[in-house]
Amino acid sequence: MTQLSLMLGNVLLSMFVRLGILGDPDWRKGREIHSYVIRFSYDSEIDVFNTLITMYVKCADVCSARVLFDEMSKRDRIS
């Protein structure tokens, strides 16, 4: 785990909390954040993937979470 990936995971988690995704799941807001992650090439970080998977599960979109999990080239215990 790199310092950058840890920071990105924390930033994403705080963005989710601010947008209310963890309290009241909103799939559209989560998709916007996922688009941002892809656009700025943060999708190679394990922690970012793990955070996105968690977001999709909390939004009851298990299929998208599974697709992300299957696309991961590396996994850790949290994955």
From TrEMBL:
Keywords: Signal. GO terms for molecular function: RNA binding. InterPro entries: PPR_At4g14850-like_plant, TPR-like_helical_dom_sf. One of its GO terms (biological process) is RNA modification. Residues 1-22 form the signal peptide. The keyword Iron does not apply. This is Pentatricopeptide repeat-containing protein. The lineage of its organism: Eukaryota, Viridiplantae, Streptophyta, Embryophyta, Tracheophyta.
